[in-house]
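Ex. 9. Protein: NADH dehydrogenase.
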Amino acid sequence: MKKLLLLGGGYGSMRILQRLLPNDLPNDTEIILVDRLPYHCLKTEYYALAAGTASDQHLRVSFPDDPRLKIKYATVTEIQIDEKRVLLDDGESIDYDKLVIGLGCEDKYHNVPGAQENTYSIQTMPKTRRTYEALNNVRPQGVVSIVGAGLSGVELASELRESRPDVTVKLFDRGDIILSMFPRKLSEYVQNWFLEHGVEVINQSNITQVTKNGLYNHDEFIESDVVIWTAGVQPVEVVRNLEVEKGQSGRVKLTPQHFLPTDPDVFVVGDCAELPHAPSAQLAEGQAEQIVTILKKQWNHEPLPEELPKIKLKGVLGSLGKKHGFGLMGERTLLGRVPRVLKSGVLWMYKYHSGS
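Predicted structure tokens for NADH dehydrogenase:
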């Protein structure tokens, strides 16, 4: 049997599984999925798990059940492209015919002293569980500092404000206003929501050091019970170690067909791929759809298209607690209850179509 090896059970790999199983996988091919956990995790909702407003079970989606899908629970330690082999932390190795790398990302600490050692994360399910435990144990009237006011930091801060109204939440933002990559109207709405709900937003911040007891913003020390880092990501180490061409962000450069310029059998999906959009679950799914198209043509020995259609992104939806939110759909800015309801609906539909 030929082997299609998927590394990582994220949004991209899930979409590939959904499109190939049960009817579109060649009879002479099996799929092997390598992941550390026995289920797909809703990474876009990790902020809610960390804040204690969503259960662990709520963020799990089962992998498809199919006799031609084998799941190996392990951590990838090395990808040997020349040998068409992947090494795992249990000492085993897996050979492949086709490979899809979807291992996701991890925090990028920008060489800030103490940041990696003294902060909590919401980048993986195990790290998010650890963050939840730490936030649960913060003393009444304690201080939680969140470094990074992108989508993850904003959603975490707002959710934590609802789940722990007894603690002080500080959100550190490098820009002049929160979510500066969005239209000004949206940024002002979110910044004002935090002002009205008692979240302290520190704009034009520059975190220069993190200690066990707090952090330094410029030269000012701010005592904190817990510091959570949401200030940037990078591909996981095993991808950073690959000797392939990468962009400035460290993500892997690909052909328009999403495989390596030097190897048409190795695809990269999601956060590790150099694409013209910011990484997102939606982008990974769109990319996965196109990877399936290319795989089918390769299996059928059909010519590959020189270009593929631009991946259409439907927009961005974010939450401000359980009742308010914000969004950008094309050129249209959404504020208030409607985007929050829409986000809940999108999540429900995703779980429903994934069989959970």
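Check your answer against this statement. The first strand starts at residue 2 and ends at 7.
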